[in-house]
Amino acid sequence: MTITKLPANLEEVESVKIESSSENQITAFVNFPSTFTQSLIEEALTAVLPDVHITHELGNTPRLQWADYDLMSFDEARHDPRFLISSYVYRKALIRKHLLHNTATEYLAKCRHRGMKSALSLPRGWVLDIQFADELDEALMDDLYELDAALVANEEMEEDEREWFILKPGFADKGQGIRMFSSVDELRSIFEEFEPPSDDEDEDGDEEPLGNIGEEGTAILTSHMRHFVIQEYMPHPMLFDVNKGGSVGHKIHLRAHVLVTGAYNVYLSHALFVLFAGVPYTHPRGEDLDLRPHLTNVCIQTGLAPGIVLPLWDMAGATGLAHTPKGYVPAGTVDAAWLEATFAKAGAVIAEAVRAGAECGSFNLQLMENAFELFGVDLLLSHPAQSSGQSTGTLPIPDVTLLEFNASPDVVNSGDALRPNLLEMFDGIVRISIAPFFGRGKEDMALGEDKWGWRKVGKGEVRASFA
């Protein structure tokens, strides 16, 4: 784990022209492709820092950059601690699915070796490096022999008893390339689907753009992606009806908004949202599998069955459901204690994931004091193993499994109805990470404390490396 060395004093810094006429003036470069996100950030900045000067052009590098990763300049912040940026330069250990899997797996192995318990939980899985479908058989014999054994065992089972798996491209987002399978033939068919067209099939030589081939526009080209992660499909998801008190189970996942500051503190926003699948849950079966009951990604929930997004705290009184061969079975009712326990458990999982990146992310996660970043973290809720699935009154506290970290979470998918929740979230980011940096306040939150719509869930240190 390394962080960029910063100068011991400002005299060591090469003079950089700062767009400010006064030492106390804060000029902020704010620029996001989404006007929804842009408006939230600008409103939060001006509410907390009324004298801030906001510019949409980078120009002479301002002291604060809060912008899309590809629009920022990192040179000044890497060498001058007076500049604050809204993204770490290197954070692939968290946001790339295959690297997150490797990082978390290595961290959990270290915990077991040390005899330590960890709150971090992720699906059993494997990383696959492949460019063409004809490389799959060799991979199954070598690195994926455990997966191959599970798929072969499936051939002797009834469909309802099979173990299912999810394939995710390491570099894709918005649901691109996500597929489910339960046999070697199904996995091979997926990669054949992702093969580029041959010369005979594409006489004009025009290759379909990434993400526009295959059904529903979610296919990718294997040669463009190369790195994949395969994960077990968690078999006992906690289900809820989209109508409170209903009895039709829909799969959900939690979208957590996570703030990481400096090197490092971790905060979990109370703007923790529940994303519903638009189609009722059924056990996966068949080759022509509809992904919508199983994958709650907003980008997949389209057409006649759009997903629903609700704040976690609005789930009070809802009935949790389990899926059985006989249908949906009530498992208990959500109460205030369940909401708090689930929120706390989510915070513990996320804090451990960041710690895993700090300890095992190597070059792919470099935390720096003058940076902060907002991540969207996806978590799955499952019925605990000891649960009978039958209602005993209060819903059992779920198992919380980490699915993925997302950079620059697309908050516009949350909808206008949740704008007040998001505005409070961005207001808290300014108060926690920006105002104190420029001497306009103090972040003195204790671990576990709630303030400004956020809870501090993690704190750590990373060791600097010196050139």
What's the short version?
The protein is α+β, with helices and mostly antiparallel strands and 467 residues long.
List keywords for this structure.
10 helices, disordered N terminus, 467 residues, D-amino Acid Aminotransferase, Chain A, domain 1, 11-stranded antiparallel beta sheet
* Tally of DSSP β-strands: 19
Low-confidence stretches: 1-22, 201-216
Global geometry: globular
Instruction: Give me the CATH fold name of the domain at 92-97 and 235-423 and 450-457.
Output: D-amino Acid Aminotransferase, Chain A, domain 1
Helical segment count:
10
Helical percentage: 10-25%
Mean pLDDT: 85
Order of helices and strands: EHEEHEHHEHHEEHHEEEEEEEEHEEHEE
How many angstroms separate the termini?
14 Å
Class by alpha and beta content: alpha+beta
Please tell me how large the radius of gyration is: 23 Å
Q: Main β-sheet: number of strands, strand sense, barrel status? A: 11 strands, antiparallel
Report the portion of residues in β strands: 15-25%
Second-tier CATH architecture of the domain at 92-97 and 235-423 and 450-457: 2-Layer Sandwich
CATH class of the domain at 92-97 and 235-423 and 450-457: Alpha Beta
Can you describe this structure?
The protein is an alpha+beta fold and about 475 residues long. Among the domains are: about 90-95 and about 235-425 and about 450-455, D-amino Acid Aminotransferase, Chain A, domain 1, CATH 3.30.470; about 125-230, no CATH class. The protein is about 25% helix and about 20% strand. The protein has ten helices and 19 strands. The chain has helices at about 35-50, 75-80, 90-95, 95-115, 135-140, 145-155, 185-195, 220-225, 335-360, 420-435; strands at about 25-30, 55, 65, 85, 125-130, 165-170, 180, 225-230, 240, 250-260, 265-270, 275, 310, 320-325, 325-335, 370-380, 400-405, 450, 455-460. The strands form three sheets. Strands 9, 10, 11, 12, 13, 14, 15, 16, 17, 18 and 19 form an eleven-stranded antiparallel sheet that branches. Helix 1 crosses helix 10 (about 420-435) and helix 4 crosses helix 9 (about 335-360). About 40% of the residues are buried. Mean pLDDT is about 85; it is low at about 1-20 and about 200-215. It comes from Cutaneotrichosporon cavernicola. InterPro entries: TTL (IPR027746), TTL/TTLL_fam (IPR004344). This is Tubulin-tyrosine ligase.
